[in-house]
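Q: Structure tokens for this one, please.
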Amino acid sequence: MIAFTQYLVAYFLIKLPDFQIFENWRFAILVLSTVFIAAGGYVINDYFDVKIDQINKPDEVFVGRIIKRRFALLIHQIFSGIGVVLSVFLGWKILIINVLSVSILWFYASVFKKKPLVGNFIVASLTALSVSEIAIYLAPDQVIVHVYALFAFFINLMREIIKDIEDIKGDQMHGAKTLPIVLGIRKTKNVIYSLAALFICTVLILLFRIDNRNLWFCFSVLFLFLVFLVYRLILADRKKHFSDLSMLCKVILLLGVLSVVFI
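A: Here is the predicted structure, written as tokens:
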């Protein structure tokens, strides 16, 4: 999904006339390095979350059951190392981004994931960064790319908070202090409503600056899906409801990614 998004953004949003996107080996390395770092992040997250996942998602636990924990740690180190080494060929900006990403993902999985909002913010920011770094590497003045990065940030932030509500039982049993544990589910929902409103207002301001008719249309459709998400969130009161909402966030993300084709 990350590789798919980065290629679509580069091909349809940046549109550099002399840049052959599918023939440029440096861009392929950029995508590959991002994918390896993300994969390493997923592995280290599973490494630290074994006990919580045994309660929240017992059928999806691999570390400690199918893969030994020491081997999972080794995979994380190899994947993250490959991601950082590859970024050496891409200049100092991408190298710094990747080194910081690896470090932040470690601290997220080991410490910040169990803190209210901080962990959610980290995941959402790194997701947005995987989009923004395309502009940073190819065309720093392309504001439209950062609009999509902002979209990815807000949708992922809301999804991460929804997942915390879904996983509240296992998180409570292992001493986590996520937002729904600290505030309660009702107040956490209010936070998500506020984020949705802030997202719409922020994107509208940027859309007025860019003045792209196709972009207006695409985000109008995405806003309708966001309104539907909020409506379903108001009614949600069971674990399955929040699981469905998390999936709906993924659908909105996918639609957002696909919409770049029409810009």
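A few notes: The chain has twelve helices and no strands. The chain has a mean pLDDT of 89.
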